[in-house]
Specification:
The chain is an alpha/beta fold and about 475 residues long. The protein folds into 2 domains: about 190 residues, Rossmann fold; about 210 residues, no CATH class. The chain contains 21 helices and 10 strands. It has a 6-stranded parallel sheet, with helices on both faces. The protein is globular. Bound molecules: zinc ion.
């Protein structure tokens, strides 16, 4: 099975996707080059030349301290040597981990990279999602302050997350993850030997982050039909095509880490990032499942624990949300809705949100942050009452469209199983308890202004305790 749209096809890829409904006007080839090849590493000097990086100025290579190997050699040393031999003035910037032993995308790191940038320099991120996001956002802020464009290239070291082709950056602000506008990379280079030698748990996580689309796109459409989000188009769905079938078919190659497996996955991941960037929102790849994951991150942050592998955590919250969708699609009867009982009292909700988040963050900061976002959603829900009535009347059609893009948890489990991914929260590192997962499932809607199925269940007074017991069964 082929990809409907192959990001490795250069200008042809862009020409074809520009014809899709929902492609933004006046955005011509925002990423100049994307390479997904065996030995792509050795093309790096030529690629820099092609995207007009200035060899007279420094090449800032941003990395963390993680040791990476490629066919038994030290990857970072190898990259630096190739660049040095090609005549580049290489200036390594090494990001330091915090007390959890991890580097996180925060302003401290971003400012440090930004401070090292000089006029005309080129930035090369050598790493996975976090290193890419820090470098990207440093370049973005530098350009905004100085008005001079920079060449920024990503050398992707793992198929771990759909972030590399994104023009947004998820950044910790006051302990809560927020997505800020950022910039595209000028070019992306995926060396298949490097991707094959990445820790396998990162590859598994990359698949997991993609599966989110089977919840997030239904959520996006739901919000659109309820008048709560006007940005919906079919573009993201069309761009990603029959992703689940491709993943099933490629699962063995991914598990065996063949070049074919690494290439297909890297391309799907690139498409996932573009689906968000070109829709100008994270909504296509981030719905109820990601908000649950953010809650689990928040719990870890407050307990000073390392964060679990993002995509793997997301794959499991996706199973929960996909289960909730199956129940909703089967059991929701619009004729039974009592409209007046679907509008919770703002004071009551504020009380509940404050109490809920005080449990995990006694400082009250998280409560404040969550309520300030949630109140906007609740206000919009009240304002769009007419859209809700129209939604109830048109449920037959809406249901078909949602059913078309959502998947049974069993189908998603089959993909995860075929690539040897963790299938339960207890298998995660660090492991997540049933109580924590339940807390995330129940309270994710209270955290964000984005409407998802989780909110509908609250507004409709759904029996969520019973629903939780049903969706949790899949996880055993
Ligand atoms: Zn994600």
């Amino acid at each position: 099975m082929e990809l409907d749209y192959d990001p490795g096809e250069g200008i042809n890829f862009w020409r074809r996707i520009e014809l899709l409904s929902g492609y933004p006007k006046n955005e011509h080839m925002p990423i100049e080059a994307m390479i997904f090849e065996s030995n792509a590493l050795f093309k790096l000097p030529d690629l820099l030349h092609d995207v007009k990086a200035n060899p007279q100025e420094p090449l800032l290579t941003v990395m963390d301290k993680t040791r990476m190997t490629r066919l038994g050699q030290d990857l970072k040393q190898l990259v630096l040597r190739i660049l040095h031999e090609a005549g580049w003035q290489v200036r390594p910037i090494v990001l330091e981990p915090d007390l959890t032993g991890q580097v996180h995308t925060d302003m401290l790191h971003i400012e440090a990279v930004k401070a090292a940038i000089t006029s005309g320099a080129t930035l090369l991120a050598i790493g996975s999602g976090t290193v890419c996001d820090i470098t990207k956002h440093a370049a973005y802020l530098y350009e905004r302050e100085n008005g001079t464009p920079l060449v920024f290239v990503v050398f992707q070291t793992a198929n771990s997350v759909s972030a590399y082709t994104s023009n947004m950056a998820p950044i910790f602000v006051n302990g809560v993850k927020r997505t800020l506008p950022s910039r595209y990379p000028t070019a992306l280079i995926c060396d298949l030997e490097t991707l094959a030698d990445a820790p396998y748990e990162m590859t598994v996580a990359g698949v997991g982050d993609l599966l989110a689309a089977y919840v997030s796109i239904p959520d996006w459409y739901l919000a659109y039909r309820l008048g709560m989000d006007h940005t919906y188009t079919d573009f993201a769905r069309l761009l990603m095509g029959p992703m689940d079938d491709i993943l099933i078919e490629t699962a063995e190659s991914i598990r065996e880490r063949t070049q074919h497996g690494m290439q297909i996955l890297a391309k799907l991941i690139a498409l996932g990032g573009l689906a968000m960037s070109l829709s100008h929102a994270t909504t296509p790849m981030s719905g109820y499942e990601h908000v649950m994951s953010h809650i689990l991150d928040m719990i870890a942050e407050i307990n000073h624990q390392p964060l679990a592998q993002h995509g793997t955590q997301v794959s499991l919250t996706t199973l929960l949300a996909a289960g909730a969708y199956q129940h909703f699609l089967q059991e929701f009867i619009p004729q039974e809705v009592i409209l007046s009982s679907c509008y919770p009292d703002a004071k009551e909700m504020e009380k509940e949100i404050r109490q809920t988040f005080l449990e995990i963050d006694p400082s009250g900061k998280a409560s404040e942050e969550c309520w300030s976002d949630y109140r906007l959603k609740l206000e919009a829900w009240y304002t769009n009452r007419e859209s809700f009535i129209a939604f109830l009347n048109d449920w037959g059609k809406i249901r078909r469209k949602i059913a078309n893009w959502s998947r049974k948890p069993e189908k998603l489990l089959k993909i995860l199983c075929a690539i040897n991914a963790p299938l339960t929260f207890s298998q995660m590192i660090p492991s997540i308890t049933e109580a924590q997962a339940r807390f995330a499932f129940m309270n994710a809607p209270l955290m964000r202004k984005r409407l998802t199925l989780g909110d509908m269940l609250i507004f409709l007074n759904w029996d969520r305790k019973k629903l939780w017991e049903d969706v949790w069964k899949v996880m055993k």
